[in-house]
């Protein structure tokens, strides 16, 4: 049985543990807070059983069989023993990640792949204290990873191709949808595209063009409908009689004109932003009851969409 060690038992760590177990891997879950990893397993068992009841459990194994593949550890050396792949999921602080990988390298063989779940720290910084950086990469999931399958694989400048290929194969085996970046860049691909959408959405609301509620509908009932199945490149390719080049011949000048009309990067902390915050809070109040209910609904909708995509 091949072993994967997951470092950190928070939301992302628990999700990765479930994803890897769904693919039949033996998963060791580690947390440096005594008892925390064991507590996380209790939560995972409940989630697996609920997913099974809702016919949304991933993989070929039952919930009980998947849970049997999981074990919890408070001792790092024990958690790393026998593993071939390490997925780090500690909180998003550079020094913490650097130190944990420095500790991990002292305890594993030179062929063990070291992967970070960071969403905004580039590999050259995360792995700066690691001696053998050729086996290091970022595997950035999209939250929640169990229902949103995309994972960005981002190499360190020294990462060898075989490490990217092996990680791509692992992610594919467990049912994720891996994409490989050819080199590191701040924000990777997902967050750069997301930032562009956020910036223009913010500007349109700030400038009184559209409401918070309606700009969200532009995505959820418009662009998002097709982007759930095909991306922007294929969308353009299919929206002109002779494909992408024809599309740009027809619409490229208009797109460039609109792009040049975009304003500077918004100041999300300005006094004017308070009206946007207030408008959002009127739609969904920030008390835990309302937020938890919306997150639950989001996850249910994502599960339904994941099932639809799987069936097609």
From TrEMBL:
Residues 1-17 form the signal peptide. Keywords: Oxidoreductase, Signal. One of its GO terms (biological process) is fatty acid metabolic process. The keyword Signal applies. Residues 187-255 form the 3-hydroxyacyl-CoA dehydrogenase C-terminal domain. It comes from the Eukaryota. GO terms for molecular function: L-gulonate 3-dehydrogenase activity; NAD+ binding. This is Crystallin, lambda 1.
């Amino acid at each position: 049985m091949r072993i994967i060690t997951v470092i950190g038992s928070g939301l992302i760590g628990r999700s990765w543990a479930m994803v890897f177990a769904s693919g039949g891997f033996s998963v060791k879950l580690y947390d440096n807070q005594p008892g925390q990893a064991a507590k996380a397993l209790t939560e995972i068992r409940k989630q697996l059983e609920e997913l099974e009841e809702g016919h949304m459990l991933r993989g070929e194994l039952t919930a009980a069989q998947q849970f049997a593949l999981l074990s919890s550890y408070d001792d790092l050396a024990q958690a790393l023993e026998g593993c071939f792949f390490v997925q780090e999921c500690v909180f998003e602080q550079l020094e913490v990640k650097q130190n944990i990988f420095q500790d991990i390298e002292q305890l594993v063989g030179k062929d063990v792949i070291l992967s970070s779940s960071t969403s905004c720290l580039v590999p050259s910084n995360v792995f700066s204290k690691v001696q053998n950086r050729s086996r290091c990469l970022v595997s950035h999931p999209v939250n929640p990873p169990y229902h949103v399958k995309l994972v960005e694989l981002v190499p360190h400048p020294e990462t060898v191709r075989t490490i990217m290929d092996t990680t791509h194969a692992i992610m594919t085996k467990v049912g994720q949808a891996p994409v490989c970046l050819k080199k590191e860049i701040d924000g990777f691909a997902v967050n750069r595209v997301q930032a562009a959408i956020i910036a223009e959405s913010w500007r349109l609301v700030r400038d009184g063009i559209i409401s918070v509620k309606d700009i969200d509908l532009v995505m959820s009932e418009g662009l998002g409908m097709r982007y759930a199945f095909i991306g922007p490149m294929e969308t353009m390719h299919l929206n002109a009689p002779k494909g992408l080049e024809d599309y740009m011949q027809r619409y490229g000048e208009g797109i460039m004109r609109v792009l040049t009309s975009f304003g500077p990067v918004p100041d999300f902390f300005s006094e004017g932003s308070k009206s946007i915050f207030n408008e959002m809070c009127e739609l969904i109040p920030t008390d835990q009851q309302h937020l938890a209910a919306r997150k639950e609904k989001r996850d249910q909708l994502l599960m339904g969409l994941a099932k639809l995509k799987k069936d097609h």
